[in-house]
């Protein structure tokens, strides 16, 4: 895996407009243990936001784990998915974030001698953002950053 990641990072270094990296969690569960995202067939809604974000056509909110969409930035036509459910899905818990960062570290240690340094830097930046974040981070409408014209 380390060589695979290194390969794609090197590809990005050689091109003038490297692709951006986005992270999604289709498998987050609610308090009852049910998946919060409505299913595989709805993934295009998020992928459309990603394309629009890359092209500067939509906004994003900075969170402890990176930039994320607001409810109104996703196309919901034809799907009954409430803003309340979306906001719960997008909530970042500091303790859960730290646990995930520790799990990354355990996984990355398996091939530490070959791991691209960017992975270590990004994990440390994530840990720093989580450390500075509130225990329970939530989207706020005033946090939006508009796309550049």
Secondary structure topology:
Layout: H1 2-14, H2 43-54, E1 60-63, E2 66-68, H3 83-90, E3 92-93, H4 94-108, H5 117-132, E4 136-137, E5 144-145
Quick description:
The protein has helices at residues 2-14, 43-54, 83-90, 94-108, 117-132; strands spanning 60-63, 66-68, 92-93, 136-137, 144-145.
Can you walk through the features of this model?
With 149 residues, this protein is mainly alpha-helical. The protein has a single domain, classed as Phosphoenolpyruvate Carboxykinase, domain 3, CATH 3.90.228.20. Helices cover 43% and strands 9% of the residues. It has 5 helices and 5 strands. It has helices spanning 2-14, 43-54, 83-90, 94-108, 117-132, and strands at 60-63, 66-68, 92-93, 136-137, 144-145. It has a 3-stranded antiparallel beta sheet, with no helix packed on it. A two-stranded antiparallel sheet has the order 3-4. A hairpin with a 2-residue loop joins β1 (60-63) and β2. α4 (94-108) packs antiparallel against α5.
Strand order within the widest beta sheet: 2-1-5
The tally of structural domains comes to: 1
How many H/I helical runs? 5
Query: Judging from the principal axes of the Cα atoms, what is the shape?
Result: globular
Labels describing this entry:
149 residues; mainly alpha; Phosphoenolpyruvate Carboxykinase, domain 3; 3-stranded antiparallel sheet; two-stranded antiparallel sheet; 5 helices; 43% helix
